[in-house]
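Students often ask why inverse folding is considered easier than folding. One informal answer: many sequences map to the same fold, so there is more than one right answer. In these notes we will look at a single instance of the problem. The structure comes first.
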């Protein structure tokens, strides 16, 4: 496949991370300024067998972008990209090396997006003593130290206006550990036909969605627990479809695919894939890991226990929300 990037704009759906992330004109790719460690991490995915299990849970990496707007062919993962010169923003956001990734929210009509910052340690091992002290204080003053997570920010679509509602970073920094269940309930809200709740999906849709999301996160947790790495600043990104009809169709489709998984595996699937791919709607949700600017593979040092602890917190919160909806319908 050959793709052209002729113009860019700021990524409107960004709910976490640093400013300066751009998206292509069609919205399918993002262009993100990258520190060397993040680029090294994405390149290592093709070379380090221990990282291989993570690949399904990461955004697709298409290479690097330099100031002149050219893709570095040595960094391309599978299929080439040919870039035309970019409209460089006035503030020259692309004056540093950037990475080109798939835009995880692109397949969704109305993407609800949650960024969960993982880990109890918020500073890189190469940080200065002053920064270490600041980041330790930030961890203590937020939910990171006690729980291993912080709700960095999220976006929810209003069911009445079909417009996104953004909850800023200040919310995640202000709440206490006891408030985290409420935050998860806000993101996985129950929508109502009478409009009394202006966000969320119906119970029949959100419950199977939550259970499937939880399974994916549990799978990622097991992979992370087996890796010898330090993943400072890494986030768990959860995106799900806010459009009721599309979300219900997606959940139903996932169920049908699960039922038929073992049938006709090798008969007609390959022949139909190309014809059906362009006709199939997007997924009802995605769960991915993002932000690897301070991720290091650390052989012999064991897993990042603070990040594993954060995953356990997320799983407990999802279990609580699933039980809450199952038992009371709220």
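Output (designed amino acids):
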């Amino acid at each position: 496949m050959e793709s052209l990037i002729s113009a860019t704009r700021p990524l409107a759906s960004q709910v976490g991370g640093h400013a300066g992330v751009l998206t292509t004109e069609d919205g399918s790719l993002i262009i993100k300024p990258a520190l060397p460690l993040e680029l090294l991490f994405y390149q290592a995915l093709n070379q380090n067998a221990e990282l291989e299990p993570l690949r399904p849970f990461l955004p697709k990496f298409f290479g690097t972008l330099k100031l002149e707007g050219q893709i570095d062919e040595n960094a391309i993962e599978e299929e080439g990209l040919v870039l035309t010169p970019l409209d460089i923003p006035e503030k020259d956001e692309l004056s540093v090396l950037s990475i080109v990734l798939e835009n995880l929210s692109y397949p969704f009509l109305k993407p609800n997006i949650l960024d969960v910052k993982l880990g109890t340690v918020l500073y890189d091992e190469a940080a200065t003593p002053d920064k270490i002290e600041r980041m330790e204080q930030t961890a203590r003053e937020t939910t990171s130290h006690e729980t291993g997570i912080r709700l960095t920010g999220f976006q929810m679509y209003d069911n009445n206006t079909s417009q996104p509602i953004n909850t800023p970073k200040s919310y995640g920094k202000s709440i206490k550990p006891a408030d985290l269940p409420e935050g998860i309930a806000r993101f996985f809200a129950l929508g109502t036909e009478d409009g009394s709740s202006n966000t969320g999906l119906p119970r029949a849709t959100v419950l199977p969605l939550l259970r499937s999301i939880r399974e994916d996160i549990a799978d990622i947790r097991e992979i992370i627990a087996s890796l010898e790495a330090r993943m400072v600043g890494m986030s768990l990104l959860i995106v799900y479809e806010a459009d009721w009809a599309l979300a219900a169709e997606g959940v139903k489709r996932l169920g049908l695919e699960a039922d038929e998984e073992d049938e006709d595996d090798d008969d007609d699937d390959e022949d139909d894939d190309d014809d059906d791919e362009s006709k199939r709607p997007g997924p009802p949700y995605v769960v991915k890991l993002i932000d690897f600017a301070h991720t290091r593979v650390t052989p012999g040092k064991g897993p990042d226990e603070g990040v594993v602890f954060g995953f356990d917190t997320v799983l407990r919160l999802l279990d609580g929300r699933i039980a809450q909806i199952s038992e009371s319908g709220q």
